Amino acid sequence: MTPETRTATGTPRAAFTGKAPAALNDPRLRANFRRAMDGLMAKRAAQFADPAEWAALRARGTEARARALAKLPELLERLERRCTENGIVVHWAETPAEANAIVLGILQAAGARRVIKGKSMVTEEIHLNAHLEAHGITTVESDLGEYIIQLAGEAPSHIVMPCIHKNKAEIAALFAARIPGQGYTETVDELTAAARRTLRGEFARADAGISGVNFAVAETGTLVLIENEGNGRLSTTLPPLHIAVTGIEKALENLEDVPPLLSLLTRSATGQPITTYVNMISGPRRPGEKDGPHAVHLVLLDNGRSRIYGDPELRDTLRCIRCAACMNHCPVYTRVGGHTYTFTYPGPIGKILTPQIEGLDCAGDQPHASSLCGACAEVCPVQIPIPELLVRLRGEAVHPGPAAVAVKGGGSGYTLFESLGWRCSTLVFTSPRLYRTVGRLAGWFGTLMPGWLPPLNRWTRFRSKPRFARHSLHQLARKGGYDHE
Ligand code: SF4
Fold it and tell me: Is the C-beta atom of 389 inside 6 A of ligand 1?
């Protein structure tokens, strides 16, 4: 993971804009993403070939998530009660620093020195690995994709397939360089076997396992975790201690809400009817049981989610089930890749979630990294109106009204230049006489406008300079005898 991605506060507001040109000019990166995204889109389309079935399942999933959010405070209390009854110790963390301190405290109290991790985006969000490593605790990622990027010292570029930006040859070279005794091979089975050999030893040596949570069921105090490699199951059952970390929005009301969401999640994410493993964790090992950890902890993270929850429109962001379908179909993400976004969550979901978590003052360019084509909303299995939320956040960046109190950093995009620009445009567009005069002047002198001059060059860097018509529509109408003034 690069230091830049670890730094939330203070990340330049235009980090995306700064990185995008390099990504667009990287043919290898573009080819890797194009190939991977085409495959994922085709697999998903095959899964939802029946529009009526898709619509009905989507309605069920959306209803389950919306209902859970409508009752979230009550559900979280119920979840804590049920988990506690099941023997799971529940912790509440308001900030990433608090969550990191809680996890570190649990590990230190247990004398744990080595941790094996299942895939978890929320631990990426809080930069848990770096925190634990800084305190002398070794963390090993056990998901194959996460293991690869950990070896490479990179951050995930996709929320479901973290190393999708790498091709076979790059992984082969990485393994040959970083895994002792491993020669160069591009045979997938041999590469997988090499990772498996290393990770088997890590599972056996680990003092604790850390995982994320896909759904936390309040009715039964059950943590649902889906995966394809069995590493999630090994991480949460083999070591004597299991710590699950999740955002507070992952709560569901009932167990019966799980099947439709599971079906939507796996089919949208990887085009699979179901994942190979569905783990339902309901507490530590009980007397007489032969496996399972002796202690299970659940860390519930807020990190700005309560603030998002407080805004009735932006609250829809929290319905997300992290399937990544929006990014697989996004014309921006598929061309620039996940690292261009700088923050943990890339693509359309990142463009609405990151500015709300980190603040518009440091992630204000993210909502602008969109053509507003609506592809993301079309495929979102829980019907999050992503384009509408992007427009709302763009507005918040320049015009924080009374309704904007929920968005951190609102108004930070309102520079003096923009303010003057908008005032002038209001004057011109509300005065017919002034509009005609400016139009005429633009027709005469527009060609003299230097496209290279800042700040106009921010427009002309990617687009051709607009050519003003020599005659306005009014003049042409008058000439043609259609003047109604
Ligand atoms: S916003 Fe929708 S499509 Fe995107 S990851 Fe979340 S649930 Fe999936």
Answer: no
